[in-house]
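Researcher: Re-running this chain for the archive, since the previous output was lost when a drive failed. Same request as before.
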Amino acid sequence: MDQSLVLDKERRNFQYHLKLGDMDLQEFVAEVALAASRTLRKAGGEVDPLVVSLLRESIRESLRKVVVGRDVCGLASVCRYSEEYDPWSE
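Model: Regenerated structure tokens:
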């Protein structure tokens, strides 16, 4: 998916920041997987632990394609020039 937005024929890139509080990325992925499983249950589907595990792995792989960490962030101008790192490494 293209991460930029075209306004007035000009491409603009946006940065999004997750406010995870005391959660790490793995806990966030687990929370999203549980939300997806609750939605499947509401739709009448039977959800067992294997489905939740598969959802978690699928969500993690999807997010891993687009989520990066930055070593210095706070002010927008500083964040833009900070070094990226892989927040998924364990």
